[in-house]
Amino acid sequence: DQQVKQNSPSLSVQEGRISILNCDYTNSMFDYFLWYKKYPAEGPTFLISISSIKDKNEDGRFTVFLNKSAKHLSLHIVPSQPGDSAVYFCAASGAGNMLTFGGGTRLMVKP
Amino acid sequence: DTGVSQDPRHKITKRGQNVTFRCDPISEHNRLYWYRQTLGQGPEFLTYFQNEAQLEKSRLLSDRFSAERPKGSFSTLEIQRTEQGDSAMYLCASSLGGVLYNEQFFGPGTRLTVL
After folding, report:
1. Which of the residues A38, B66, B77, B91 has an alpha carbon 20 to 30 A from that of B31?
2. Alpha-carbon distances of B112 from A30, A40, B13, B36, B83, rounded to whole Å
């Protein structure tokens, strides 16, 4: 039973345009959500997070939106840059601190 | 470099051998986590420590897997009698404890190949 799902395995975007990565979850006990970026042969790098008491968090080019009623979150990257090309994972946390990850979305930003 | 470090980065072993991996967390972090990642999947939680106490270990994949953090600093993950299905990337992460929400910071991982 996948509690966190990223339904798009890949996404291709032109440099300078917006990238939107989506994530759905099923467990209503999750109250903290994170996005990580991963390059090959490296560990995941923390990007941005949001708690369930908020519906938006912004950090530079990255914005995360949370829709609790729909159990959906999204990551917006504006403007997209070629260096953003990587695999992006969403993760969720509830009591117990363990992170439950989605399967990842490979983002390709074309120059 | 003050990030999470893991050693070795790569390990090739034969089926049936025991392997041990080490993780050194960020120095001020008292929580330490182990995850496993297989190809095409997201990381999967295994276990975590608060200081030297192992607070969750029910997600360890079998009794062949064990982890320790004897002095509340570095941690080791041991896999006994390795099987080909154990081939994966083993990731360590650390975070601050005592706060409601805390980001976990990951090390580079140890890639295990069981022949």
Report:
1. A38
2. 31, 15, 8, 10, 11
Q: Which residues of B touch A21 (CB under 8 A)?
A: none
Best of A30, A62, A97, A105 to disrupt the B interface (most B CBs within 10 Å) is A97
Are B78 and B20 in contact by the 8 Å Cβ rule? The answer is yes
Q: Could you read off the pLDDT tens digit of each residue along chain A, which spans 111 residues?
A: 689 999 999 999 999 999 999 999 999 999 999 999 999 888 999 999 999 999 999 999 999 999 999 999 999 999 999 999 999 999 999 876 789 999 999 999 999
The verdict on a CB contact (< 8 Å) between B45 and A99 is yes
Q: How many CB pairs under 8 A join A and B?
A: 60
Q: Which residues of B touch A49 (CB under 8 A)?
A: 101, 103
* DSSP reduced 3-state for B80: coil
Burial class (CB in 10 A: 0-12, 13-18, 19+), B77: buried
Amino acid at A32: Y
B16: left (phi over 0), alpha (psi -120 to 50) or beta: left
